[in-house]
Design a protein that fits this description.
This protein has 122 residues and is mainly α. The protein has 2 domains: 87 residues, no CATH class; 31 residues. It has 5 helices and no strands. The longest helix has 28 residues. 6% of the residues are buried.
């Protein structure tokens, strides 16, 4: 999984970056940049909802800490799911394949030996 997809504020269409969004919430963008960001957020339902939710955070100076915490939690959860999926997959069991191959070779050799002995008696 890409790291960008594990970022809680990453956008699938890439219109609004996390840095741009955090600058907006801290009022560090110019009026034109803020207006453009609001216009882009209005076009997308998820972005608009995320922007509204983040604006309601009581301590705007702690938004970066909250976002970092959410990102860490999201990465931890996705890592657990990936690890569990990998554990469920069947691993190649080479000793089993090798044993079957040897058994097949023995069966063929026994067949050849018996067939040769039957032809020799006739």
């Amino acid at each position: 999984m890409q790291d960008d997809l594990k970022n809680i504020l990453s956008q699938q269409n890439g219109n609004i970056s996390q840095d741009q969004l955090l600058k907006y919430l801290k009022n560090e963008l110019s009026a034109a940049e803020s207006h453009e960001l609001e216009k882009q957020a209005a076009d997308e339902g998820f972005e608009s909802d995320a922007l509204e939710g983040l604006q309601e955070v009581a301590h705007s100076e702690k938004i970066e800490l909250i976002v970092d915490s959410l990102n860490r939690d999201l990465k931890k959860r996705t890592a657990k799911k990936i690890h569990a999926r990998e554990r469920r997959q069947l691993k190649p069991q080479w000793w089993l394949y090798f044993s079957i191959l040897i058994l097949l070779i023995l069966v063929v050799l026994v067949y050849i030996l018996l067939h040769h002995n039957m032809n020799a008696k006739i």
